[in-house]
Amino acid sequence: MAGPDTDAPGPERPRRRRPAAAVLIVVALLVVVAVGWFLARGLRSSSSTAAGSCQAAPGATLRDIDEDDDPEHAWAHVPGQKVTVYFQTRGLPPRYVTLVERAADIWSRGGCISAVGVDTCPAGANCTTVVSRERSRDKNTDGESTGTDRSGVRVANKITYFTGLLDRSSDNGALATVVHEMGHALGLVHRLDKNDVMNADTNDRTDPVPDEIDFANLVVIYGGGGE
Question: Looking at 79-181, which runs of residues are DSSP E strands?
Answer without folding.
Answer: 83-88, 113-118, 127-133, 143-150, 153-162
